[in-house]
Amino acid sequence: MEYRIHLEQMEFRAFHGCYDLEQKVGNRFRVSLELTTELGAVAEQDDVQLAVNYLEVYQVVRQTMQRTQRTIERVAVNIIEAVKSRYPQVLKVSCTVTKIAPPLGGKVDGVSVTLEM
Questions:
Q1: Tell me, what's the pLDDT at 14?
Q2: Which mean pLDDT values do the consecutive 10-residue runs of the chain (117 residues) have?
Q3: Of 69, 77, 80, which is closest to residue 26 (Cα–Cα)?
């Protein structure tokens, strides 16, 4: 049986952006993840050691967000690769990265990309 884990709307301050100024002053970003993995014996044995650890996943995302990139597409790829590297039992990862209030010349709540692997 498969199950999905959702980490929703994690917020970070980071220095991603295509403009040099964005990489100097930074911006706020939100990351949401959906991980699909095999349930295995997690529920049957009620053993957290067998589960994907949400705290560790959050730490992987937090560390990955500290690596400055020009595009949020690259940020999402980095997050997916880091999660898959740490948890090879994860079958599928969907990652949405949102730049909050991007500098587009008008009022925009955010711009997002969603990648799945």
A1: 96
A2: 95 92 89 93 80 94 97 98 95 97 88 97
A3: 69
Structural domains of the chain, ranges and CATH numbers in brackets: 2-116 (3.30.1130.10)
For residue 28, give every residue at least 6 positions away whose Cβ sits within 8 Å of its Cβ, in sequence order, or none. Answer: 11, 12, 13, 99, 100, 101
Token pair in block for residue 63: 């560390």
pLDDT at 22: 81
pTM (predicted TM-score): 0.92
Residue with tokens 């991007």: 102
Q: What is the pLDDT of residue 10?
A: 98
10 CB-near residues (< 8 Å, 6+ apart): 30, 31, 32, 33, 58, 61, 62
Measured distance CA(9)–CA(97) in Å, rounded:
9
* DSSP, res 73: H
> To which residue do tokens 């959702």 refer?
6
Asked if 59 and 29 touch (Cβ cutoff 8 Å), the reply is no
Query: CA 61 to CA 48: how far, in whole Å?
Result: 20
